[in-house]
Each structure stands twice: as C-alpha cells, then as structure tokens.
Specification:
Layout: H1 2-19, E1 26-29, H2 31-39, E2 45-48, H3 52-56, E3 64-65, H4 73-76, E4 86-89, H5 94-105, E5 111-114, H6 117-122, E6 135-136, E7 139-140
Parallel strand pairs: 1-5, 2-3, 2-4, 4-5
Antiparallel strand pairs: 6-7
Length: 141
C-alpha cells in the first residue's frame, strides 16, 4: 500500500512538472497583468496568433494578426523587434503557447502570453474589429 501511495505522488508530481512553465523568457500572465503591461509599454508589440477570420471578429486594440496556423508565421515575425517585449494571445491559450515557444526559438527574450486568451480578455476588457493592423507578407495594411 505504501508503494502504491508513493507511485501516485511521484506520478502527480511528474504531471505537474510537465505542465509548469519551463522558460524564464516566457511569462503566462492574467488579463489584468497583460492589460497593465501593454498600457505601461510605449508601442507594445501585441500579436494575435488566431486566423484572420477569428481576428476580424474582435481583437485587442493595436494587435497585429500573425496567424500561427499560416504557412509564413516565422517570416511575418521578422517585422517585430526581438529586443522589445512581445505580447501574444490566441482564443484560449493553446496556439499562443506554441507561438511563444517559437518566438523564443527566434530570439525573443521577453514574451508575455495571455492566460486564457481572448476569451479571458473579453470577459473584462474591450476588443475592436478594426482591421488596419493585419500583417500580410510583412506589410501593414
């Protein structure tokens, strides 16, 4: 019985460790902290990694749409400054987590991911439907 208890605890710890944030360059933060960060940062680099169709239904003001599922995600990130903080989000957190890891691979060192994505954000903060910040082929429209 003691061995079974011990194995249960070890398994639980292993599962918890696998879900823990492992990079000091990526911070997953609440909508409140995300809002404070982007409001206290001059010209924040905010990227919405949802599809253009999802983006058009509502996004955070001044967010640029760089579709994680698109063929040119890496190419489109070249318009961003790797030395400045980057704020990333998606619908609920799955795609932005993957995108954040990719951004780290590309040399970004200050990556802030919105916990809960736009779903969490929109429960407290406004979104916009303006489409002037969509990036296509590295150009702003």
């Amino acid at each position: 019985m003691t061995l079974r208890y011990f194995l249960t605890i070890i398994t639980a710890l292993a599962l918890f460790a696998c879900n823990a944030q492992t990079s000091d360059k990526i911070k997953t933060i609440s909508a409140t902290d995300y809002s404070e960060n982007i409001n206290n940062n001059k010209n924040p680099q905010i990227i919405d990694v949802r599809t253009p169709n999802e983006y058009s239904t509502g996004h955070i003001k001044n967010a640029k749409n760089i579709d994680w599922l698109g063929d040119d995600f890496e190419e489109q990130t070249k318009v961003l400054d790797v030395k400045k903080p980057v704020y990333v989000y998606c619908k609920s957190g799955n795609r932005s987590s993957k995108a954040a890891k990719k951004l780290e691979e590309l040399g970004f060192t200050q990556i802030y991911e919105l916990r809960g994505g736009i779903l969490e954000w929109s429960s407290t903060y406004p979104t916009t439907n303006a489409s002037t910040t969509v990036i296509e082929n590295g150009d702003k429209e």
